[in-house]
Amino acid sequence: MRDLQGPHGVITPYEGNPHRDWDSDATIPAPLRVHQTPVKPEWVDYNKHMSESCYLLVFGDNSDAFFRYVGIDEAYRASGLSFYTVETHIHYLREAMEGEPLRLSYQLLDLDRKRAHVFQAMHHGGSGALLATAEQLLVHVDLHTGRSAPLPGELYERLLAIRAAHALLPTPEQAGHTIGIRRPRDTP
């Protein structure tokens, strides 16, 4: 069973692993595929499928893998900078059962000097069926002030390169949706 508590709280499977070296000449996959995992027994609820909160846990692990891909790790955070998630929209499309393989993708939809708009898709690792999606807005933060901060030049350049590679992808169907009850126009 994965120990979710570290000395500072919840940990991810990537914590303690340094980021990879950035190769500016390497082809950037579109979308990125940086994380996969089976559905753990502790993620399964009383309905015998993965609990809704665990989908977010897995998307968070996928984000941590993405951060390591671009150069963000414990050393980066020790410098006083990090990303915070400020908004998340999850679409639950299909059930995931204990032991089933999950394969995740990561797409950078938009970017400015302080924010990243990302989209993640969770697929069944065997059938390829789309199980869930997460659309998120991330803000780059100065940990000392607790306020948004511009991305350092090198990191911003890496993210721009990923954004350029991902600009060729279609906008996912679930991106940009709002929550609400759809009613005919003449219904109060």
Overview of the molecule:
With 188 residues, this protein is an alpha+beta fold. The protein contains three helices and eight strands; from the N terminus they run βββααβββββα.
Distance between the termini: 50 Å
What is the averaged pLDDT score? 93
CATH superfamily: Hotdog Thioesterase
Number of domains: 1
N-to-C order of helices and strands: EEEHHEEEEEH
Helical residues, percent: 10-25%
According to CATH, what is the class? Alpha Beta
Radius of gyration over C-alpha positions, nearest whole angstrom: 17 Å
Output the number of helix runs: 3
Query: Which segments are poorly predicted (pLDDT under 50) over 5 or more consecutive residues?
Result: none
Amount of beta strand? 25-35%
Q: Which keywords apply here?
A:
alpha+beta, about 30% strand, six-stranded antiparallel β-sheet, single chain, about 190 residues
Describe, in short, the structure shown:
This protein is α+β, with helices and mostly antiparallel strands and 188 residues long. It contains three helices and eight strands. The longest helix has 19 residues, at 52-70.
